[in-house]
Structure formats: structure tokens, C-alpha cells
Amino acid sequence: MKMGNIMVFLVVSVCLQTIAFAEIPEYSVKRNKEKIVIDGILDEADWEAAEPGGDFVFSWWKEGEKEQTEVKMLWDDNFLYVSYRCDDKHIFADHYNTNADTYKDDCVELFWNPSPEGQKKYNMFEINCMGNLLSVYTGSGKSIHERISRIMVPHIAQTIRGTVNNDDDIDTGWIIEMAVRFSDYPELSIKTKPDPGDMWRVGLNRCGGKINPQHSQWSPEKGDKPSFHRPDHFGKIFFINDSVR
Fold it and tell me: Residue 154 maps to which CATH number?
């Protein structure tokens, strides 16, 4: 290969790596100023002031309406707070038992890893529009389909703006609000809580549904088929010591 061709190849390679890096989104999680009540309503001034994470990407879209999902985050010394506001004209849920296949319903997901150096170890929370949870820890050495890998997160609330499983009307959407207590998950980090400036890798996803099924993500993954289980493609969240307002 001639020197000129080598230089062109190197420049193109650097550019492609820069583009790939730029595709991983980042979010600054600010501190809440007042108490967050987990009720699925999002009427606190802190939620109003929090910046949304940005539009979800539809990497595998072929047809149907791209119904958006807005995610916001806050934190304090005890909890990471996450809210999802989901546009949805036909709300569907068919799984009402804990750790059922909620991802087949209208569902949002939080995949989170507070120790990015251990990319294969992360927790998965898959929450349907009714607030029902499928919760899995991927670092147990067991299949995620086995019960031993299942964990729990206790603080979830939801609001439905429409009627569930009624295909004859047009709904508006639904909200999931959750709080993750840092100290509940020692298997993922030696810290009992984040320090200001810490970075986590996080996957935020939307999936499932009967009419107009959704497969969208905050941090897009590559591949021919929908798959949310690529922790190297998770986005980055940074814990900021500034108050949200």
C-alpha cells in the first residue's frame, strides 16, 4: 500500500471511530432539590426542571408510527430517580405476575451498570405500562431465564392516559416513575452510592405492544434484529453535584 493510501486509510479510520464514539449519548443527572414522591404523576418542580435525555432512535423501524419516549433522571444520596413519558395510541399489557414476560407488553427498560469496567455485569429492569416488573441480574453466572438471576426493585408507580387493551379507542400514553436505591445492589459496585462525577453505562429502551409494536432506544445498538443486550453500546450518565434548579 502506498504512503498516500495509508494516510487516507488512517484518516478515514479515525473519522469512523470518532463518529461511532459520538453516537453514544450522554446525560448529566442533577440532584433533586425537594422530595420526589413516586406516584407516576411527575408534578414536582424538580421533574419539570430536569432536562430530557433526547429522542429515542428507531434502528429497526420498518413501518408504523414512531411513538416517542421521554426519559428524565435525578439523584440524591439514596436514590436514582428515573421517569419515562411514553406516547402510545394503543396501550397493551397481558402480563400481570411479577417477573413475567413484560417485554411483550408496552414496556420500558432500564439496563444499568455502575462499574463500566465490568461490562457483562448489569441489572435489567423491564417494566410494562401497568408498572409490573421483570428484574434480572446478568452477573450471577446463570441464564437470565433462570429464577436465581431475578432481583427486585421496590419503588415503581405508573399513570395510564387512556384504556389498556381496548383497541377501539385512541389513547394518549403512559408514565413510569421509579426510584433505585443505591445500597440495594452491592453486587454491582463496591460503592454504596455514586460520587459526584461518577459515570455509569445505561441502556434505556422501549419495546413490545400489540398494535404498532415499539423497538426504540436512547443509545442505539447495531444489528439486523432488535436486541438491547449490548452493554458496550449503552449510553453514559454522569452524576452532577449541581441542583436541578
Answer: 2.60.40.1190
